[in-house]
Amino acid sequence: MTNGADALAQVLAQNGVDTCFANPGTTEMHMVQALTGRHGIKNHLCLFEGVASGAADGYARMARRPAATLLHLGPGLANALANLHNARKASTPVLNLVGEHALDHIAHNAPLTSDIATLAAPMSKSVVTLTETSQIAAQTRQILTDMQTGTPGVGTLIVPNDVAWGQAAPGNVPPVDLPPLALPDDRTVEAAAKALKSDGAMLILGHPFITARMQELAYAICTATGATLMGEAATARTARGAGLPNLPRIPFQIDAALAHLKDVRQAVLAGAKAPVAFFAYPERPSALLPPACTETTLCTADDNLEGALEALAEAVGAKPVKADPGQLPAAPGEQAIDAEILGAAVANALPEGAIVIDESVTNGLYLYANGGTSPVAHDWINNRGGSIGYSMPVAIGAAVACPDRPVIVVTGDGSASYTPQSLWTMARSGLNITVVVLANRRYKILANEMSKIGAGEPDEGSDPLLSLDQPPIDWSALSKGYGVPATRVETGAALMQQIRRAVAEPGPSLIEAVM
Amino acid sequence: MTNGADALAQVLAQNGVDTCFANPGTTEMHMVQALTGRHGIKNHLCLFEGVASGAADGYARMARRPAATLLHLGPGLANALANLHNARKASTPVLNLVGEHALDHIAHNAPLTSDIATLAAPMSKSVVTLTETSQIAAQTRQILTDMQTGTPGVGTLIVPNDVAWGQAAPGNVPPVDLPPLALPDDRTVEAAAKALKSDGAMLILGHPFITARMQELAYAICTATGATLMGEAATARTARGAGLPNLPRIPFQIDAALAHLKDVRQAVLAGAKAPVAFFAYPERPSALLPPACTETTLCTADDNLEGALEALAEAVGAKPVKADPGQLPAAPGEQAIDAEILGAAVANALPEGAIVIDESVTNGLYLYANGGTSPVAHDWINNRGGSIGYSMPVAIGAAVACPDRPVIVVTGDGSASYTPQSLWTMARSGLNITVVVLANRRYKILANEMSKIGAGEPDEGSDPLLSLDQPPIDWSALSKGYGVPATRVETGAALMQQIRRAVAEPGPSLIEAVM
After folding, report:
1. Is B408 left (phi over 0), alpha (psi -120 to 50) or beta?
2. Which of A156, B52, B367, B446 is the most buried (most CB within 10 A)?
3. CA atoms within 13 A of residue A255's CA, in its CB half-sphere
4. Cβ of A115 and B121 within 8 Å?
5. What does the sequence similarity comment in the record state about its family (chains A, B) (predicted)?
6. Residues of chain A neighbouring B510 (CB-CB closer than 8 A)
């Protein structure tokens, strides 16, 4: 016999959940012992739960299997929710282990009692509250199955303390067995092929995880049919560089997005949804494709996109073709850093195998496009959920999943201010992460958006709610406070040089890029 | 005509909601303009939503009227929830203004779309989604009424962007009119009087807001009847010092709590609930009063506690009596700082009118008891919800509500790590807050709790999930990074001297007390 927490840990380990990002409390003490015990699970302590949930997201994006979070009751889960929102939108499997009071303690309405299942529901694909120790193994296996079947998602397992401390049989259950992904039928493939050969055709590639092979196939299909290739605005992860086609993406900015899509008459959706505006704007549509456009779905994000593209390539007689990703921009000199210089600096500094976590917000215009011109193979991670403060936490998980690959975060200073505690876990776990903080000391995107959404221009009253300059955040001091060495740069050349240095050194570094 | 956001701001200002703690996004731009416009509402920018919600909680605890938060969609609300949990448990009126996509945009499931109302429900007393501009004034008045009637609580007003930008009539509605609080009937008062005159009687005083008058009455009642006076484990705010009775409180630690209460045969609940264990522990009861104890409720926290105590005092023939709050401890010398020295240093350093925000966790044993011996009148704020990371945000709100009173935060380093961004708002808004961070570099409470809850002792595997020493957080660097000057102290004398200095200087200061 063992206890419930131990049986739970055993089922996790048997199913490849061997990594946990933790911020525990009293109700999770049995789980702490079990997760750090004999099952070989690796644990990373986080000072804030949003770091843990973002890290689990980043881990799954790279490892393609779930990590766990360990969270303390409803408030601990609440702090994790914003980054779980991003995981949900990225179709990332994240398993939350949330401690709960012992079952008969809940009715006493102690200080920390809250409705955990309701809190979890909006961001979770599956929520299970364990009710007896004997069911732990089966219920844990079930949630791992549910959260990974079809579109992967967030699973929240609520573990009452008495279930964790109760006596249990060892957690031997058959491993999770996921069904194969579906392929489109011939008629669907033919319809997509026909649409792509029409005038004004666009292939929109939009699976959360865009592999190199998907892009090669999509590029060949578009070359054979004359269709335009377009990516969704954000993906959970895209393979890039080393001659891949430098997949363009639908712009965030509403008028730019509409301009990109205004002539599309046939849209073939390959893993993508029909594109929608990030926000609603007065006098602008929510659906971005023109009303006259016909939409054809090759397959959804739940299906076997690579297989579907293989079938489509065959149907249109596509031949392998070398893409032109565009010219790597010149290495920047002593100019001040702006969006263009940032893009050039990062593209030139990218090391082989880099994982870039992009939270550059208003300064990302050149960053993504230039990244695709890099001669080295790398992965690009983006935010499909829009909840900011995701990049440093996600970087932790990516670095844990891929300890031999350098991770580079590019984040606005406003964004980085949601989860600065991430820096401490980077230092504690000795992760090779380079954090570039773009210090423009402003919620610049909001200053841009205010007039676009019809709310006028920032004025003397409202500007103080958009500016971060009073006092300026000293990112170098902050970073050192959390044990991460930091430098400050003001030119493109210095930024490029510092990224190269930081990537080459073990452990984390922060670079404050003054803009 | 005006727009919906402006009508909303007008109703807020008319009802005394003149302070907002904000972290806005695109969907809140019209509200930013309205809240910073002609209605005289004062706004404080926060880098993280948990700071905003905690600040609104602290504001209401001191001002006894609600402040607003301004939050960006579901993820912005999610980040605010942990401190809203504490506000809910403290019966604090907090009004969340949460932006939402324009109503017809929601069905398009854009990246930031989520189920805001469900997220809000567990921590809110009232959740209202505005549905048309013409109803804004009435619906805003209604939520202000609902959240302040009976037990005050959190109101969440979800504001779709098109409702905010739509044309509206000016928001003229009658001011909110709250019903008077109820008084107990004579029979209830007599029953309480009789119980207090019995053997083994205890008066448990537990309103969220304990005034000086309540304590004087309770002390006189207990003196007249021979009953023991006891406070709940935590209150939202308690008046203390200057000869008040130094209200004891039910200990957090389960065995100490049971020992305190084991001989109680008659418990009279004055605004309090029957005490329950903070957590469930194997072989320990959840209800802390002995099974043989009879409970008599004088009144609940929803009622007029001061009036109820007046009636009870009259019923038992209580006379005003001078309390003995105990001896102010000697000022500490050059000793290292431990819980006892901390208590002595703070008690001796307390300035007139101080507001103490207590998140001292394992180091609070002497802090509260010694604070009550202070010769100066002050207020003590505690956490009734147990979600940590509350003290620095609450301090912001308290300081905004009471700009002429010094605010002193005493917080564990683990706790302070949830919402460090608070420091920036303290600097930005120029608030006289002294933050004492107790740097023991450990989740010491968890190391204590692990064995108590039957999970064994921390071992080589589990200890790394309880320790914060690798790397040590440099609180001075962190604080300076956010624009708050900082010092580090290692002795009781230095701690006391630095608190005195920091309180006397305008603006915030941080003191890292190495333990």
Report:
1. beta
2. B52
3. 6
4. yes
5. Belongs to the TPP enzyme family.
6. none
Residue type for position A235 = T
Going by pLDDT thresholds of 50, 70 and 90, the confidence category of residue A1 is low
Angle formed by the axes of helices B339-349 and B492-504, nearest 10°: 30
**Among A450, A471, A472, beta carbon nearest to B29:** A450
Peptide bond into B471 cis (omega under 30): yes
Contact A101 B279 (CB under 8 A): yes
Angstrom distance (rounded) from CA B66 to CA B60: 5
| Chain A residue nearest residue B107, CA to CA | A286
Contact B276 A101 (CB under 8 A): no
Which DSSP symbol is given to A287? B
What is the DSSP pairing of strand B19-23 with strand A509-514?
unpaired
CB A473 within 8 A of CB A417: yes
Contact B384, B89 (CB under 8 A): yes
The DSSP letter of residue A112 is: T
B279, B300, B448, B466: best to mutate for the A interface, most A CBs within 10 A = B279
Q: Residue A469: left if φ>0, alpha if ψ -120 to 50, beta else—which one?
A: alpha
- CA–CA distance from A40 to each of A34, A170, A176 (Å)? 10, 16, 19
- Bridge-based pairing of strands A378-381 and A355-359 is parallel
Q: How far apart are CA B106 and CA B117, in angstroms?
A: 13
Q: Give percent helix, percent strand, percent coil of chain A, each to the nearest 5.
A: 40, 20, 40
Whether residue A276 and residue B110 make contact (CB cut-off 8 A), yes or no, is yes
* Per-residue pLDDT at A170: 76
Global pTM reads 0.98
Tell me the pLDDT tens digit for each residue of B148-183.
999 999 999 999 999 999 998 877 789 999 999 999
